[in-house]
Amino acid sequence: MLTQLSINNYALINHLSIDFSSGLSIITGETGAGKSILLGALGLVLGNRADLSSLKDTSTKCIVEAKVALSSYNLEEFFKEVDLDYEAETIIRREILPSGKSRAFVNDTPVTLSVLNQLRTKLIDVHSQHQTMQLSDNSFQFTILDALAKNTAKIASYKRGFSQLSKLKKELAVLEAEQKEANKQYDYNLHLFKELEEAKVKVDEQEDLEERLEKLNNIEDIKDNLSEALSITVNDEIGIQNLLNTLENRLSKIAPFSKEYQDLSERVTSVKIEIDDIVSELEDANENVDFNPNEAEEINDRLQLLYNLQKKHTVGNNVELIQIFEALSDKVAQVESADEVINEKQKEINDVSEKLDKVADLISKARKNSIPKLTKELQALLTDLGMENARFSIKIKATKNYFSNGKDELEFLFSANKGGSFGELKKVASGGELSRIMLSVKTILSENTQLPTIIFDEIDTGVSGEVSNKIAAIMQQMSKNMQVIAITHLPQIAAKGSNHYKVYKEEVKGVTTTNLKQLSTEERIVEIAEMLSGKDISDSALTHAKELLN
Fold first, then answer.
1. In the chain, how many H helices and how many E strands?
2. Interatomic CA distance for residues 201 and 318, integer angstroms
3. pLDDT tens, 316-354?
4. What share of the chain is helix, strand, coil (3-state, %, to 5)?
5. How far, in whole angstroms, is CA 341 from its chain's centroid?
6. From CA 429, how far away is CA 374, in angstroms rounded?
7. DSSP structure class, residue 509
8. Phi and psi angles of residue 456, each rounded to the nearest 5 degrees, phi first
9. 179, pLDDT greater than 70
10. Among 96, 293, 411, 443, which is least packed, fewest CB within 10 Å?
11. At what angle do helices 240-254 and 259-288 cross, to 10 degrees?
């Protein structure tokens, strides 16, 4: 619950700090005194958008800070989900800098407005007159019914499944779109794939073929030079081989005389062995040199095929050509195996849908079972509030569609007059009736949810007399389960608060500021008397005020 609100440099407020307690707290003040400013500041610290117009003094920053006691509301898991340190007394702070930039903190940890807005839904419900239109919102109607049906855990489970189902359906749609696109290209891709598959392209093949063709194209020169090389080496008189034999013989004869001669002899022998190998290879090469026009033609054809394929696929070598072949293989395989993949994804969807159907059925049954109780409680509360003939027609219809909170459609109709026909709330209920219906709804929600704080902003507008006493009694009853703060103009309601605060304006050195103070018992008597009779307080008004307080 809200334990303290501090406001600095916001709208007409210089500095204000006020403590709140449990139970029913009342805020009163003249029209225009600044009650809406308080709600604006509270909205700011809970995540509302802000701009420089919020600053009273645009040269210094605006700070709004709220302290909230959380120990009774099981919010540890939420804090873990949003990566925040949990504190039993949590401090939420919002700053607006003179530059217009805004910062938010929870327990001194910077947070986004999204996190603040998530937190506010778990902490404070600020309800004003215009929010009675929520009653006609189908999702809010489901919220009322589900609170009474104790569907919180089931809906949380359903939402996890619904999120998974939505994800799977998106994945299926992507697969189907990809298959459709792939099918358009399949025949062409298959043709290209088959063409490359038949070509059996190898990584180093092109370089080998080009080398072989170069040899064939220069076969005469090769033959001449090989023959000449053999002649130089094996000639009986001047051949290198013969001369080396002679050299080896001469050195072998003097090798025993010195290590120097022995080394020279061994080196010559080594050279002779190498020359002998060279001669052998020259003879083989010379014998194998033979121009084969068929081979040259085959190599030319093969090279031309590779060149054509490279040009067709706009690549420069076989490595890139093989990469394209592999990519085409994947594309062809994707189409050929797409049905299997899509069927598997559809099976996943069916499995999740089946589980989701079971949870949705449990939710629907709980809703149907809670309708009589909700109708009875609403009609009883509205009878107390002067709407004796109020009737509700609430019907649940199970569908085949998946919605974010189940598979039901909800019809929530109302009739204010005896014998009158049922219709949509926004069409058949007046503003005053909507306010009383909303108060009744909030009363039921307060008994079935763990919301720490609710703030009523002049929800009692347009009512008086005995009805105002009933509203006050209902607020008192609600305050047993949660903190209730009511901004009111009605003395009957103001008198029922366990704490009473007054918003007022004052002028200091020609500057108007808004302040808030907690009233003592005597000050409450005067305030309520003034609410009864105006500025000129009569003795009877004071007596009446004391009676109301007692």
1. 17, 15
2. 7
3. 888 899 898 888 888 777 776 777 888 889 999 999 999
4. 60, 20, 20
5. 27
6. 18
7. T
8. -100, 120
9. yes
10. 293
11. 160
Distance, in Å, from the CA atom of 351 to the CA atom of 138, rounded to the nearest integer, reads 29
Burial of 301: CB neighbours in 10 Å, binned 0-12, 13-18, 19+: exposed
pLDDT value at 465 more than 90: no
Contact call for residues 195 and 310 (beta carbons, < 8 A):
no
The half-sphere exposure of 183 on its side-chain side, counting CA atoms within 13 A, is 9
Q: What percent of the chain has pLDDT over 90?
A: 42
H or E segment and range at residue 496: none
Cβ neighbour number for residue 384 with a 10 Å cutoff: 17
Can you tell me the distance from the alpha carbon of 35 to that of 13, in angstroms, rounded to the nearest whole number?
11
User: Is it the case that residue 17 has pLDDT exceeding 90?
Assistant: yes
pLDDT computed for residue 291 by the predictor = 66
Distance of CA 267 to the CA centre of its chain: 81
Paired sense of beta strands 406-415 and 391-403, if any: antiparallel
Mean pLDDT of 358-362: 96
CA angle 465, 467, 468 (to 5 degrees): 70
Rg of the chain over CA atoms, in angstroms?
46
H or E stretch covering 308:
helix 293-312
Beta sheet of 406-415, edge-to-edge order = 391-403, 406-415, 423-424
pTM, whole model, 2 decimals? 0.67
Residues 223, 227, 228, 232, Cα dihedral to 10°: 150
Tokens of residue 97, six digits: 């800098």
Side-by-side strand order, sheet with 62-69: 13-19, 2-10, 62-69, 89-96, 102-106, 109-110
Q: How many whole angstroms separate alpha carbon 503 and alpha carbon 279?
A: 116
Q: Check whether 157 has a pLDDT greater than 90.
A: yes
What Cα–Cα distance (Å) separates residue 220 from each residue in 214, 215, 217? 12, 9, 8
Query: Could you tell me the end-to-end alpha-carbon distance of the chain, in angstroms, rounded to an integer?
Result: 27
Candidates 347, 354, 396, 501; CA nearest to 145 is 396
Listed residue (87, 140, 76) closest to 109, CA to CA? 87
Instruction: Sketch out the chain's domains with CATH numbers.
Output: 2-148+389-519 (3.40.50.300), 176-338 (no CATH)
Residue 13 φ/ψ, nearest 5 degrees: -100, 125
DSSP 91-134: EEEEEE-TTS-EEEEETTEE--HHHHHHHHHHHEEEEEGGGGGG
| 362-411 pLDDT, tens digit each | 999 999 999 999 999 999 999 988 899 999 999 999 999 999 999 999 99
The helix or strand, by DSSP H or E, that contains position 358, with its residue range, turns out to be helix 318-384
3 near 471, Cβ under 8 Å? no
DSSP letter at 422 equals P
